[in-house]
């Protein structure tokens, strides 16, 4: 019986969740289909913020919003955004709401990168769970999405929708 299959007490399970999330991020470079470089994996943090705001019809995304969403210093977020722009994944544009502000949009190359990243994530999930039955896979996916939705609700309680302000 594998270690993860052994019965655990409830508090052991709950205490193991946090470290498990950390391992998820560190193992996301798993070489399955179209591997993602460490550099591009870091870039996807920023690209996801911009993409999710657009998909959710959220507010425009600024460098400050990226910093807020990541919980990072504005100078760190600025360097991350500049790196994504330099790689051709993001473009700066004038805000449609306030022409004095600069907002971020995915470039066509950024769209391609995120499509490749989503494909990589799906392939990794399928590889990791290949021994699971379909019911387990779908239940895990459903619960993971529910968890993320609840986490987002906590992030935005009392301050409107979306990652940007």
Summary of the model, kept short:
The protein has helices at residues 10-26, 38-55, 63-70, 74-86, 108-128, 134-156, and strands spanning 90-94, 102-106. It is mainly alpha-helical and 165 residues long.
Instruction: Name the helicity range.
Output: 55-70%
State the helix count. 6
In total, the number of strands is: 2
Strand order of the largest sheet: 1-2
Q: Radius of gyration in whole Å, from Cα? A: 18 Å
Rounded to the nearest angstrom, the distance between the terminal CA atoms is 49 Å
Q: Write the element-wise H/E pattern from the N-terminal end onward.
A: HHHHEEHH
Largest sheet report: 2 strands, antiparallel
Kindly estimate the percentage of residues that lie in beta strands according to DSSP: 5-15%
Characteristic key phrases:
globular; mainly alpha; 6 helices; 61% helix; 2 strands; disordered C terminus; single chain; two-stranded antiparallel sheet; 165 residues
Task: Report on the architecture of this protein.
The protein is mainly alpha-helical and 165 residues long. Helix content is 61%, strand content 6%. The chain is built from six helices and two strands, in the order H-H-H-H-E-E-H-H. The protein has helices at 10-26, 38-55, 63-70, 74-86, 108-128, 134-156, and strands at 90-94, 102-106. A two-stranded antiparallel sheet has the order 1-2. Strand 1 (90-94) and strand 2 (102-106) form a beta hairpin.
Helices and strands, with pairings:
Elements: H1 10-26, H2 38-55, H3 63-70, H4 74-86, E1 90-94, E2 102-106, H5 108-128, H6 134-156
Antiparallel strand pairs: 1-2
